[in-house]
Amino acid sequence: MTAIDYEAEYNNRQRVPEHVEINERWALLAAAYRLAGDSRMNQPYGKRERQRYDIFHAADEDAPLVAYIHGGYWQRGDRKDYSFVARELNANGITVAIPSYSLCPAVSVMEIADEIQLCLAALWKQTGKRPVVVGHSAGGHLTAEMLARDWSGFAGVPADLVHRGCAISGAFDLAPLIGTSINEAVGLTSGTARAASPLFRPPPSKGRRFIAAVGGDESSEFLRQGRAIADGWSKVGVDATCQVIAGTNHFTVVDELIRPGSALLTAIVALAYEPGADDTEPPKTA
Question: Buried-most residue among 31, 59, 107, 115 (CB within 10 A)?
């Protein structure tokens, strides 16, 4: 068998040279929506500098809640650059919270997951709503973590807080990253990579809903990872599926969240309104 070039498979900036222009466009869209949306900015969920979230409210105060976790291979990115993802979800009657979190190498991947868990617990205490967790890339990994984690250590929070999630272009087996340039800041070892890999840890309880979405033009490894976690979790009773978004790469797949009527947006709206999350029927995507 030909050895897999993991650098080529996982270095998405190298695979998609136009990522610079894409990120610049996102930043402009984010800045515009930060001015236009009904929002509360810079809400603390912990004591560290980056433990903050922004929340963009839908018109109905009883709206379901989506928590969106940005990507950046756990070493870059900020909530302020992703405010735009709230636009179409708000238009569909869904409130959206977007946290920042501490970054590698200052903290480990598992410490970042601990921070996101702290944020979701804070959102529950603030809103009384179970969040549907959505995340891209590193945020996709963190989405899977949130479904699989136990919440019993958080006073006043349901021990099964997160029931539904959509991981977009996530990495769920982190071992292939060890020999790549990505690991220079992340600092994974064989032991910490396995410990931080949702694919090899106890899966969520039966009855959870999970979508692993991945761009059809992404590397074979990202396609493999999405299919592997959906297959593995579905075998133990999780309602898990892999959704391949044709014609999108690791970056442009995020644009599906702001394309009215897209399959990915429609799936997330359905997650937010499914029975047990809200008593109303899911609206048609705007």
Answer: 115
